[in-house]
Specification:
alpha+beta; five-stranded mixed β-sheet; 5 strands; 419 residues; single chain
């Protein structure tokens, strides 16, 4: 148990350190003069999972807001009338609205980032193109209004909608291409020179707005890195506390629980047994002639013997319910919730046989091998003070096993069973 815990702690610590190193590298990357708003490998995937839902909801809101705003702008064409109203109805309600609302279906985390980007960019660029196109056929007194509106839309989209920076670049380039194509194509009633100053000015504004998009994404990524660092440090702190609790409740030599943990487990088990009117079994296991073994073979051999005995006991009991502890010196205690006295006695016999089967050489034991004596007590607990009686009974049964020749199991209140 101890080795597994140490290996798990080392692996977990290494993973956390790599994660923290990745965060540090990402933070330094975002802090460059021309930061790259992206992460490497798994960190980018975590970032996408944690932010895509919120981003998609925000983008959907702004796309809907923009479409509705453009639909209400039909009032401009309604006031001017003529063919401009016809084109306005066709462009806004026949083209932009169906494509824009249809694109909303794809702006969701269930689709890839590329699909989402296309769904965002297509209706946005189309909206810029249609507004500029209406400007081409509008009366001369209203031309500048449409071209100003088209340029403002590019900049506003970059600054308000939480686009990925790379998506914002694609959107801006395509929108400017459409903007300039319509303005300088010579189509419609106006000369390109009439809107050149407006187009150039708002193209520069649109390009400058990319800086806002970049800053917003970098800020979002920095906030994500900060939250990830807090999460990792919190995980590390929880694991450190768990490891500390494990160390405090584990015997360093044998790897089984120590006396401190036994006291806590006894209290909890006793309360549960009293509440459920259930059985509780206690076994006291003592290595026979251990002092002689330790004196003759040395402390390293004695330590190895105790570790082997602890492993044998742990391998015999029920792993999911029974609790094995080092009670002190060469003595172990086993807590067996739910076992009747007879079942607890059988468990004690299996423990005794498992240790005898180890065939650990003993220079002075009767059979020339290490053996154990076991004292067993069990019963229904009516109230918690019965626990003290149960432990005392198991201890007295252990002394009887010792006095009657060792290498045997004795159930409290009954005659001992010889090996």
């Amino acid at each position: 148990m101890s080795c597994i815990g140490e290996v798990t702690t080392v692996i977990s610590g290494a993973v956390q350190q790599r994660s923290l190193d990745a965060l540090a590298w990402a933070e330094s990357s975002l802090g460059k003069v021309w930061p790259q708003p992206t992460f490497n490998g798994e960190l980018e995937q975590i970032y996408e999972r944690s932010t895509s839902g919120r981003r998609c909801r925000s983008i959907r809101f702004w796309v809907i807001f923009g479409i509705v705003l453009k639909l209400f702008s039909i009032l401009n064409e309604l006031a001017l009338g003529g063919e401009l109203l016809t084109y306005g109805l066709i462009f806004r309600f026949g083209i932009l609205a169906p494509i824009g609302f249809g694109a909303l279906w794809f702006i969701t985390p269930r689709y890839s980032e590329r699909v989402q980007g296309i769904a965002i960019i297509v209706p946005a660029v189309l909206g810029i193109f249609l507004v500029a196109l209406l400007g081409e056929i509008a009366p001369l007194s209203n031309v500048s209004r449409y071209f100003v509106l088209a340029g403002v839309n590019i900049a506003a989209f970059n600054m308000l909608v939480p686009l990925r920076f790379r998506h914002a670049i694609v959107f801006t380039l395509l929108s400017l291409a459409a903007y300039w194509t319509v303005a300088f194509s010579g189509y419609g009633r106006i000369e390109p020179s009439a809107v050149a100053d407006i187009v150039v000015l708002y193209s520069l504004v649109a390009i400058a707005s990319l800086a806002v998009t970049l800053r917003n994404e970098v800020a979002e990524r920095e906030a994500f890195l900060a939250s990830e660092r807090i999460r990792l440090q919190g995980d590390a702190l929880r694991e450190a506390n768990q490891e500390l609790q494990r160390l405090l409740s584990t015997d360093a030599l044998t790897g089984v629980y120590n006396r401190r943990h036994l006291d806590e487990a006894l209290t909890k088990s006793a309360r549960a047994a009293v509440a459920m009117r259930d059985y509780l079994g206690v076994l006291m296991v003592d290595v026979d002639y251990f002092k002689v073994y330790n004196d003759l073979l040395g402390h390293p051999a004695g330590d190895a013997c105790l570790r082997a005995v602890a492993r044998a006991i742990s391998g015999t009991v029920r792993a999911d319910t029974d609790i094995v502890t080092r009670y002190g010196g060469e003595e172990f205690a086993v807590l067996a919730p739910g076992l009747t006295p007879a079942a607890t006695e059988r468990l004690g016999e299996r423990i005794r046989a498992a240790i005898e089967a180890l065939k650990l050489p003993h220079p002075r034991a009767a059979g020339a091998h290490v053996t154990v004596s076991v004292g067993v007590a069990g019963g229904l607990l009516v109230e918690e003070p019965d626990l003290d009686r149960l432990i005392e009974d198991a201890d007295q049964a252990l002394y009887r096993s010792k006095n009657l020749g060792r290498n045997r199991v004795t159930l409290a209140g009954q005659q001992p069973a010889a090996a």
